[in-house]
Amino acid sequence: MTAKTNVHDLLAAKGKRKWVQLHVDSAAEAAAAEAAGIVILSCEADHTLAAVRAAAPSAFISAGMPHGAAATPDEALRLAFDALRRGADAIYSSHSSRFIEAMAREGIPVTGHVGLVPNLAAWTGFRAIGRKADEALQVLRKAKDIENAGAACLEVEVVPVQLADHITRTTPMLTMGMGCGAVCDTQYLFSCDVLGSNTGHYPRHSKRYADFALLEAELQAARVAAFRDFAADVERAGYPERRHEIWMEAAEAEAFARAAERI
């Protein structure tokens, strides 16, 4: 079995290796990622976490803590320790640095987030963040706050390449880059974008390598057709056939019938 990737391995390789990273939604995707040699994964810290862990035993898994799931740093600690017990290696958190600091002080590897943070997009809109120097400096300051709070990793999403490069070169954190060029320590995409299973909007930085939406549509049509055939078969008495049934031997059936009359 391949040795499990841990946070020490990732930080020791900073500046020496470019990692590939995927957000996965199922055990099947996790197993496929590990088979493809992709060992940095993220997923939600929900019922899928244990299955993802079992399917990708050598992967480094950053499990997402839902924004607002913790109202205090102590609550964040409890949720983080629970996720670690269920197989996470790090906890993704878009909460403030005081939450990150509480987890990091207890030795929990934390992944912070700067740039386009979907959980905080009410303040920024869904757009590239940091095109102007003033806004880029705000992103950098937030990255430094997260670094000072003790985070191990930092997701950098949809910011200019120059900003992502500066953050990556000047922080000891592992930077996980999505939509900001090839300068971060990992190249990060969501599996739904890679597989083409997303039926909605595809972000500009995404690239499809398969068309699972078409395959799923074909599978769904096949499901409907099979179910219709089953229903029609029942209606015309074509199912069940004798070979699908269990029958008692004649003598046993007669003995049962006689005894049943007395009950």
UniProtKB/TrEMBL annotation:
Key words of the record: Methyltransferase, Pantothenate biosynthesis, Transferase
Matching Gene3D superfamilies: Phosphoenolpyruvate-binding domains
EC primary class: transferase
Any one Gene Ontology molecular-function term assigned to this protein's record: methyltransferase activity
Biological process, per Gene Ontology: methylation; pantothenate biosynthetic process
Pfam families: Pantoate_transf (PF02548)
Alphabetized InterPro entries for the sequence: Pantoate_hydroxy_MeTrfase, Pyrv/PenolPyrv_kinase-like_dom, Pyrv_kinase-like_dom_sf
Enzyme nomenclature, EC number: 2.1.2.11
Subunit structure, interactors included: Homodecamer; pentamer of dimers.
PANTHER family from the UniProt entry: 3-METHYL-2-OXOBUTANOATE HYDROXYMETHYLTRANSFERASE
Similarity-based family: Belongs to the PanB family.
Name the UniProt record assigns to this protein: 3-methyl-2-oxobutanoate hydroxymethyltransferase
